[in-house]
Design a protein that fits this description.
193 residues, mainly alpha, 10 helices, 71% helix, 0% strand
Length: 193
């Protein structure tokens, strides 16, 4: 079941120097994090292209939120890493669409749509995370991760559980040293159990 998930987010061949860049390492951590089978098995995220895209948006969003919290002395480096992370995300979405057989004309339009969707999700998550607002985070998860305007009771319960776990993940990330985050010398805590 998850072999498709592993293959969906294939990487472009990158130089060894690029593979060692902190943003690239952070992105790979996010890919692994977003593929956690528990997100799909117990977290209720659909194992679809949309579900995998949304789980990746959540993982990258958590890392970008942590990058926004670095101290003023490292703020410029954090902004640069965050931008690189976004650029890598868009590049991999482009590659993935091409590998799925989307033509050149359709790729740029779809990548633009996906990047706008990511920014919308990032904004909703960051607002909730900045305020440590579990209810707002649940609402954002229902709209984005579960893609539900009229959520079922099961989805509401799953969003409540997942929101608590995301906040725990963010708390764990906030306790990491800025230097470790910026050098990508971290592990991402699971957000589904």
């Amino acid at each position: 079941m998850f072999s498709r998930l592993r293959n969906f987010f294939a990487f472009a061949e990158r130089s060894e120097a690029a593979m060692n860049a902190p943003a690239e390492t952070l992105y790979q951590l996010c890919l692994t994090h977003s593929r956690d089978p528990q997100l799909f098995l117990t977290g209720g995220v659909e194992d679809t292209l949309d579900g995998r895209f949304d789980s990746l948006c959540l993982s990258v969003g958590c890392v970008m939120h942590r990058l926004a919290l670095v101290s003023d002395t490292h703020q410029q480096q954090a902004k640069q890493t965050s931008q690189q992370l976004f650029d890598i995300f868009c590049s991999d979405m482009d590659l993935t669409l091409r590998e799925m057989g989307v033509g050149d004309l359709g790729v740029s339009k779809r990548v633009k749509t996906m990047s706008e969707a990511f920014i919308g999700r990032l904004t909703a998550y960051r607002e909730a995370l900045t305020q440590n607002d579990k209810t707002a985070l649940e609402d954002a998860l229902l709209r984005n991760l579960y893609r539900s305007e009229t959520p079922s009771d099961t989805q509401k319960k799953q969003a409540q559980i997942l929101a608590t776990q995301v906040l725990t993940c963010i708390d764990t990330l906030s306790k990491l040293e800025d230097g470790d985050v910026l050098s990508a010398s971290i592990e991402l805590p699971p957000i589904a159990r």
